[in-house]
Amino acid sequence: MSVLPYKEEQLGKKEQVARMFNNISRRYDMLNHLLSFGVDIIWRKKAIKMLKPYKPQLILDIATGTADFAIEALALNPQKVIGVDISEGMLAVGRKKIAKMGLQDKIELQTGDSEKLLFSDNKFDAIIVSFGVRNFENLEKGLEDMYRVLKPGGTTVIVEFSKPTVFPFKQLYSFYFKYILPLIGKIISKDNAAYSYLPESVQAFPYGDKFLEVLKKTGYKNTACRPLTFGISSIYLGQK
To answer: pTM here?
Structure first.
């Protein structure tokens, strides 16, 4: 059963996730960096560095949000990065950020559904996703469509939350994630559900070896997992 932000509503997960991110879009960047103590920035940098040997020229950023990962991907000196997201609110923030930095010729943001990508087969040299696959309505369908638009030999890099397993970090993290993070998120974002949904969705996500199995099932080869910061997050790689 899908984990939903607004459990009392009849809308599907896709619509609920879009609404949730629209609601928190203006405060999303600030909350993201605050709640992760800025470590999310380091995680993204590490993920992009793992793509450096492949020299991708055309990159697709799935669930681009406010375009932080797309901007970080410019460190690879690609010709273009295309970011796709279902939340217009998040994209609006991202477009302002890109315009302010003068990066409109390098980054293009589009409204789009990660499970029904409006791109031709074998188009992108690399696909990147940070904290987005957890929100897919159908995880396998989303990964399969990403695989479809990836060029043969292309690489997918995914950053996603996982769960620490080492004492006492596991216990400290669990307490922070279940009680402190939702409270701060609720106060600042004014959305009661958004930061309660976060720990629930992480709890339900198949992290580590289980996620590698899903990647393999949807076609990816040469898969690998690199845990980050005691296992709070992981970087996953897969190739077509």
So the answer is: 0.94
